[in-house]
Design goal:
Elements: H1 7-13, H2 26-30, H3 32-45, E1 49-51, H4 59-64, H5 69-94, E2 99-104, H6 107-111, H7 125-141, E3 146-152, H8 155-168, E4 172-176, E5 178-179, E6 182-183, H9 189-194, E7 202-208, H10 215-226, E8 230-233, E9 239-241, E10 246-248, H11 258-263, E11 266-269, H12 277-287
Length: 289
């Protein structure tokens, strides 16, 4: 299936400042109609899956912005509701099947300091579970079709997440952020993807928010080790500065690489940061929707 591109990319293109710690999740509170508009734009570009604006959303993060637990949980649910409403609108219009994937970012995303590209937070498995379980349960209860557990930098965190996914029981993909054939925390990909091998909830494994050149070798390992279909949605390959929260360099996102990802087992293909609606339209045309 064709995934969407970067939610932040499309929101920034619409003039929104995403420089605070909540990133795209801020707009769930301040401009939910803009989040819905971006979902609509990606669906109209050919995406078959919309990923919710919950990547950097958590009770703790919203609490730091002055919201109560109840308000934070409402916004988590709203992230799914917005995508579902747009999905239903699009399906009613043309009858094509579309899905909503509730985004579950790693613990490091909530720190808003680039930790999701390093991992190794120094937290116990119990602490990570206490962080992830409530928000995954809240997102799952809002009725997405599946969970997008994404940009995971560390197999230790992945082990905790897979245990929660099996407990919750909603289908999910598990997607690592990788660099040079290892997780961002430096672990071998064979070990990382083995975490999902026995999971009944994980329906696909792969990579996202990595350089396009890292996708194919990671998919080959994922297919061999996890025995699952692949998921692939790299970023543009540009450099990210977590201090200034800016991207630099030239894009390396090339949709002509996508057929090789599909040949390696990817059943879910799209883009991440700095990949926008025009890229997804080109990707959809290339892969035949």
């Amino acid at each position: 299936m064709i995934l969407d591109g970067g939610l932040s990319t499309a929101l920034a293109a619409r003039g929104h400042d995403l420089s605070d710690a909540l990133w795209t999740a801020r707009l769930l509170r301040d401009a939910p109609e803009e989040v819905a508009a971006v979902h609509r734009t990606y669906y109209e570009a050919g995406a078959e899956v919309a990923t919710t604006a919950s990547y950097q959303a958590s009770v703790a993060g919203f609490g730091n912005a002055g919201l109560s637990r109840a308000e934070a949980e409402d916004l988590l649910r709203l992230s799914v509701t917005l995508a579902r409403e747009v999905r239903d609108e699009q399906v009613a219009r043309d009858g094509r099947r579309r899905l909503v994937a509730a985004s579950v970012g790693p613990y490091g995303a909530v720190l808003a300091d680039g930790s999701e590209y390093r991992g190794r937070y120094g937290l116990s498995a119990a602490r990570l579970r206490d962080f992830h379980l409530p928000r995954i349960e809240t997102l799952a209860a809002a009725g997405p079709d599946l969970l997008a557990v994404e940009t995971v930098p560390d197999l230790d965190e992945a082990e905790v997440l897979v245990g929660i996914l099996d407990q919750v029981g909603l289908p999910a993909w598990l997607s690592y952020s990788v660099s040079g054939g290892r997780t961002r925390a430096g672990q071998p990909l064979e070990d990382a993807f083995a975490v999902a091998a026995g999971s009944p909830a994980v329906v696909a494994t792969g990579v996202n928010c990595c350089a396009p050149a890292d996708v194919l070798p990671a998919l080959e390992v994922a297919a061999r080790v996890s025995g699952r279909p692949g998921v692939a949605y790299p970023n543009s390959g540009q450099g990210w500065d977590s201090g200034t929260r800016t991207w630099s360099g030239d894009t390396a996102y090339d949709v002509t690489l996508a057929p090789s990802w599909v040949a390696a087992g990817a059943a879910w293909v799209g883009g991440c940061c700095q990949v926008g609606p025009d890229d997804i339209a080109t990707l959809s045309a290339l892969l035949g929707g």
